[in-house]
Design goal:
It is a single chain. The chain is α/β, with parallel strands linked by helices. It folds into two domains: 187 residues, Isopropylmalate Dehydrogenase, CATH 3.40.718; 166 residues, Isopropylmalate Dehydrogenase (3-Layer(aba) Sandwich), CATH 3.40.718.10. It has twelve helices and twelve strands. The strands form two sheets. It has a ten-stranded mixed β-sheet with strand order 2-1-3-10-9-4-5-8-6-7, sandwiched between helices. It has a two-stranded parallel sheet with strand order 11-12. Strand 6, helix 7 and strand 7 form a beta-alpha-beta unit. Bound molecules: nicotinamide-adenine-dinucleotide. The site of nicotinamide-adenine-dinucleotide has 22 residues, from loops. Nicotinamide-adenine-dinucleotide binds next to loops.
Length: 358
Amino acid sequence: MNIAILPGDGIGPEIMAEAVRVLEVLDLPYRSETALVGGAAYAAHGHPLPDATLKLAQSADAVLFGAVGDWKYDTLERSLRPEQAILGLRRHLQLFANFRPAICHPQLTHASSLKPELVAGLDILIVRELTGDIYFGQPRGRRLSPDGAFAGQPEAFDTMRYSRPEIERIAHVAFQAARKRSQRLTSVDKANVLETFQFWRDVVTEVHAEYPDVALDHLYVDNAAMQLVKAPKAFDVIVTGNMFGDILSDEAAMLTGSIGMLPSASLNADNRGLYEPSHGSAPDIAGKNIANPLATILSLAMMLRFSLNQPEAALRIEAAVTRVLESGLRTADIWSEGTQRVGTREMGAAIVAAVKAA
Ligand code: NAD
């Protein structure tokens, strides 16, 4: 097992250090190599995704990624901003399927903005298409003036587009995921207004013929956004396009209390993938030993399950997280009266101890 470790910026290195400590105690045969990415790579090499980092990621069976970005890079031209590293990795590794589970741990129901009875036991999976849609349509809205500014321009535009194979492959991935869970899939679109999403609905319906054991329903994205806060447990697996998935997965994340708890996986057709917490680099809390490392540690578990075929090791990690939460330890983002507040390193150490004890 060859693992590329890309800690990135902000809290990235802190949370990654804890995930690596967990990986080390699992007693698995693996090799890992660490490289710079994002703002850290730009500062050292002038590019957020240097060739050496990309080659390392391409040669690995899986990439464990922290987070990238810092406000100090906001004035850089777009192609050099830290976030471009993620887009570059997705493109080069052909990561088209993004899995974002939103699980509300029973110990954390109070941390949700919804009533506990609405979120207790919540366990949904959002499957987001990652390589098409309005984020990649051509031509993009352009900054036409030489200095790159919009000054005086009458309009800007982006184009929404999906090809049949792009929809088919994400639909297959989602039906297969639904098959392993409760055999229910909700496809979210905007078929009433957008041609692209009428096409999406038609193609998903065609692919459904190969999965008669899975119940499929279609929902408009505005209704889906509403239902997610009204009755989130009514969902099981949701499949949707790149932009709607971007928005709905953040909405679902917040239902669970803290974005610091949520892992994600982005996979290609060979099940190789990039695993990262759903949150960003949180520059506001970087270097203070207060970031929650659990989303990254749970991303490691997803990596072991999906790309490295080590489901038992994944379960060990997930069980350790549950036990540590049961014991009352909490980082600041999930802390509540009556629980014990700990820092990033202490939370990591507690997970390591729980994994060892299992
Ligand atoms: P963010 O997710 O970094 O932070 C949002 C809020 O959540 C902040 O208050 C932060 O302190 C908190 N938070 C995030 N992760 C946490 C954790 N593990 N534990 C405790 N609290 C946590 O989003 P943002 O502030 O909008 O963006 C900050 C930077 O991150 C920007 O440069 C942005 O572009 C970048 N970003 C990167 C990724 C990525 O690397 N995949 C994703 C989103 C944003």
